[in-house]
Amino acid sequence: MTPIEKIRLLKLLYQYRAMGFEYFQEYRPLSSVPSLPQTLEELKRDVAHCHLCALSKSRKNVVFGAGNLRAKVMFIGDNPGANEDETGLLYAGKSGELLAKMIENVLLVPKEEVYVTTILKCKTPQNRVPTPEEVACCKPYVMQQIQTIKPQIIVALGSTAFHHLTGEYDTPIDRVRGTVLNFGEAKLVATFHPSFLLRNPSAKKEVFADLLTIRSML
Ligand code: SF4
Question: Separation of 182 CA from ligand 1 center, angstroms?
Answer without folding.
Answer: 27
